[in-house]
Write a structure and sequence with these properties.
- There is one protein chain.
- The protein is of the alpha+beta class.
- The chain has 2 domains: 31-128 and 163-177, Alpha Horseshoe (Serine Threonine Protein Phosphatase 5, Tetratricopeptide repeat); 191-308 and 335-572 and 609-641 and 678-834, Beta Barrel (Maltoporin, Chain A).
- The chain is 17% helix and 45% strand.
- It is built from 12 helices and 38 strands.
- A hairpin with a 2-residue loop joins strand 4 and strand 5.
- The radius of gyration is 31 Å and the shape is globular.
């Protein structure tokens, strides 16, 4: 009875909340998606100006700029005032444009000088005309009357001065509010021109969601797998194959990799930025190694932060369930050619559920507070300097420190980092034909098991990772003929890795190199061919890895695309998988299993890189200002996945090779473990379909569906290997996301996000206390539903805002991984002030 009633209760709650939103919408004037409405006003304004209706056009452009500021809108407003003859207002808006330090600052400054010179000439001509005005002869009948004069207080007559195009520049007629993405090709382009499926989470999406954890923002996207494992750990993958410490999706911050090479994971809570620092998030679905090299296995996520010198200053604070806390403050400014941005923040995230209560006497714990899952203090500073026409130079640094709880690998299920420090230093130079970037990432952390019984070790350790990365890209765009345009990018990359961790056999240093080329040939406006190729030197494998990609784009109309592509990618073994040397205590007294990457009984053993081959057919339609349609079907062939190997028993003859008794722990090795490549492959048949629509002014609706059917192929496995294989999906066949956003002119904002995830089956290593060994078992995760909501109110001219946010509003308890914590409801109240 309870199982039947739960879907009914969910449906009733969704209907009730939607009904409430309809009532609010009907009673309150509202406006739609900011980018869409700004785009509409911009088009109307430019059409009116072209028709000579300057007052109407300028009003529309000002509305567009209020909704979503863009420097080109200021330029067009200034130009429209000049064409209308209001030179004072034209000069005023050109000054505002120049204050933003645009790339064409010198040209704009010259236009402003021309305008100011014209204003002075007008004023001088008017004075001369006024002074030289002759008295009007008086008729005889009025001979005694004084001569007529100009009406008191009337302005002097204005003498128009001919305008030239050079005086006020050419109008910026491009669609400045069209979506743009840089991740798919390492250059700004429309999603319609991308070789891969793409998604964008906008600043408005981020603000209206009320979400304070960056990875949770991605849950609304088609094809993206989100897994809440602990209160502070969220794992993200694309098109399946998620796992604890997910390692198959490359995460970037402004193009800088934040991949933790030590583990092959992304530690989201160790980033030095918060959600308030984000301009947007770009997601590229499908293999990305052709541009980004190793580890862009099934996609790339690029977090784009707000540019220095743009936006307002502000502060935000939030407090919620179990003491969950979020706080951020930021400031941004500009001095001539230099722009800067400073941000700082604090986050505290409690566990979803606890392993042990505080103060339990029969166990040792790695961290004192068994409620705490993550605690982070962060600070971030970025600056840019415009180098005239040469380009832009930038530098930045970030620091995050605190504690973090993560779900480890294999039988090590609950790991804590009671102290971590993560830092980065970045610099870049962007010019017309050359992009150069270098950064240093450093992570230092103490770690241990969260809990173990007295008499057993919590395996304390210390890890340190230093990564230095550099990349140079040469780019040139050439018009071969009238209908042939070629866009070429050639780049080289170097990555230095220095890793030292107690769990590894020794300190390891590696040097990685990569070369890549991206070439796009456009044939008129109807057809485009894209080819990418990258080769990477991987020291552990002692060989080059190749990653080609090709795509054909057909544009049935100016704002629609049919895309066909084939791509490959690889993931190299991580330091953890390559060089692990960790004794794991077994339930047998005095016995241990040594889990290792470099096998002592087989020194020649080496792991192979994971591989994926993907074919994709997609369709994107942005023809209407009222909706966007995105649909994709794909096939992936995945092979050589790396997994924990089966236990290899130690015989008497192997005892010397196994190392004998460990003098520090007094334990004897009875088995050897580590890593191996799976013999089985996977065929994945999938599809993604999404719709985002703005049916009436005030509503922004979206919905998407993901199909991910995994077929396991065991034809390459031996009978012995087959006996150990268990079913493994690691993703759901069906996922559904839907949501609604509401923004109103009086300041009432709201959003609802609905998520449904079908059941999953995971193959995980567990300790079998009956057989007294570690083995793989198939574990099921039931389907689950999430309903997230936010209700906010803006006031004081949109400077202040208060909101109530809810994650898992209906409190449907569920696990998103077999060993994950029991996810419940989390509420938070927030207040924001921008100035």
């Amino acid at each position: 009875m309870l199982a039947k009633s739960r879907p009914i209760r969910i449906l009733a709650a969704v209907v009730a909340v939607l009904a409430l939103l309809v009532v609010v919408l009907r009673s309150t004037p509202a406006f739609a998606d900011a980018r869409t409405e700004a785009r509409t006003h911009f088009k109307k304004g430019m059409d009116s100006i072209t028709a000579g209706k300057y007052d109407e056009g300028i009003t529309e452009l000002k509305l567009a700029y209020t909704l979503l500021p863009h420097p080109n809108v200021l330029y067009n407003i200034a130009r429209a005032y000049a064409e209308a003859g209001d030179l004072d207002e034209a000069a005023s808006y050109f000054r505002k444009y120049i204050e933003g330090n645009p790339p064409d600052k010198e040209e704009a400054s010259q236009i402003l000088k021309n305008l100011e010179a014209r204003i002075k000439r007008q004023q001088a001509t008017a004075r001369e005309a006024s002074q030289s005005q002759a008295p009007v002869p008086v008729p005889a009948a009025d001979a005694g009357a004084p001569p007529p004069t100009a009406e008191a207080g009337a302005p002097p007559p204005v003498v128009p001065i001919p305008k030239t195009r050079e005086d006020i520049g050419a109008a910026r007629t491009e669609d400045v509010f069209a979506e743009s993405i840089v991740t798919a090709s390492k250059g700004a382009q429309s999603p319609l021109d991308s070789a891969s499926s793409t998604s964008i989470i906008t600043e408005q999406d981020i603000r209206l969601s009320g979400i304070t954890k960056i990875p949770e923002l991605l849950r609304r996207l088609a094809g993206v797998d989100i897994m809440e494992v602990t209160g502070g750990q969220t794992e993200v993958s694309i098109r399946g194959f998620n796992q604890r410490l997910s390692n198959k999706t490359l995460v970037l911050v402004d193009g800088r990799s934040v991949y933790v090479d030590l583990l092959g994971a992304t530690l989201w809570q160790a980033l030095s930025i918060g959600v308030e620092d984000l301009e947007r998030i770009e997601v590229v679905r499908g293999p990305g190694s052709a541009l980004y090299g190793a580890d862009a296995f099934n996609g790339v996520i690029n977090i784009i932060t707000k540019k220095p010198g743009e936006g307002k200053n502000g502060i935000v604070g939030g407090y919620g369930t179990q003491g969950a806390t979020h706080g951020s403050l930021w400031a941004s400014g500009r001095e001539n050619d230099f722009a800067w941005r400073l941000a700082a923040g604090y986050d505290y995230l409690p566990r979803w559920s606890r392993e042990v209560p505080n103060g339990r006497a029969d166990v040792r714990t790695g961290i004192g507070d068994q409620v705490e899952s993550a605690r982070t203090v962060r600070i971030d500073a970025r600056g840019t300097r415009q180098l005239g026409k040469v380009g832009q130079f930038g530098v930045g640094a970030g620091l995050a420190q605190g504690s973090l709880e993560v779900l480890g690998i294999g039988p090590l299920n609950d790991i804590v980092l009671p102290r971590f420090v993560s830092t980065d230093v970045t610099t870049f130079l962007n010019t017309e034909h050359l992009d150069v970037r270098a950064f240093w990432n450093r992570l230092r952390a103490d770690n241990s098991l969260n809990v173990n019984y007295l008499g057993q070790s919590v395996l304390p350790a210390r890890a340190e990772e230093n990564i230095i990365d550099g990349e140079v890209v040469y780019k040139v765009k050439s018009e071969l003929t009238k209908d042939l345009v070629n866009d070429l990018r050639i780049g080289g990359a170097y990555r230095y890795k220095d890793v030292n961790w107690t769990y590894l056999d020794q300190r390891r240093v590696e040097h990685h190199y990569g070369l890549f080329v991206h070439d796009e040939l456009k044939v008129g406006s109807f057809l485009a061919f894209i080819a990418d190729y990258r080769v990477d030197w991987v020291p552990y494998l002692e060989r080059f890895q190749q990653s080609p990609r090709g795509a054909v784009l057909i544009h049935p109309s100016t704002r629609s695309t049919v895309r066909a592509s084939v791509a490959t990618a690889f993931r190299k073994p991580t330091f953890l998988e390559s060089y692990l040397a960790l004794p794991i205590q077994l339930p047998v007294t005095g016995a241990t299993q040594i889990s290792e990457g470099v096998r002592r009984e087989d020194p020649g053993f080496i792991l192979q890189a994971e591989r994926i081959l993907s074919a994709e057919l997609g369709y994107l339609n942005q023809e209407s200002d009222y909706f966007v349609i995105d649909a994709t079907v794909f096939f992936n062939r995945v092979s050589n996945l790396i997994q924990l190997s089966a236990n290899r028993p130690v015989t008497v003859g192997d005892f010397a090779a196994a190392g004998g008794q460990n003098p520090a722990t007094a334990l004897y090795p009875v088995g050897l473990g580590g890593w191996e490549n799976q013999c089985q492959g996977y065929n994945v048949y999938g599809g993604e379909a999404g719709l985002r629509t703005f049916p009436i002014e005030g509503l922004d609706l979206y919905g998407n569906y993901t199909l991910n059917a995994v077929q396991q192929d065991n034809t390459s496995c031996t009978p012995e290997q087959l006996s150990r294989i268990v079913a493994d999906q690691r993703t759901s066949m069906h996922k559904v996301n839907a949501g609604v956003q509401l923004r109103t002119k009086p300041g009432i904002d709201g959003s609802i996000d609905f998520h449904y995830v079908a059941p999953q089956v995971w193959a995980e290593q567990v300790t079998n206390f009956v057989r007294q060994q570690i083995e793989q078992q198939a574990l099921k995760v039931s389907d689950y539903t999430l309903l997230d909501a936010r209700l906010g109110y803006r006031f004081l001219g949109n400077q202040a805002e208060i909101s109530a946010n809810a994650f898992n509003l209906l409190d449907i308890r569920h696990r998103e991984h077999p060993f994950g914590q029991l996810v419940g409801r989390r509420l938070m109240a927030m207040a924001t002030y921008r100035f």
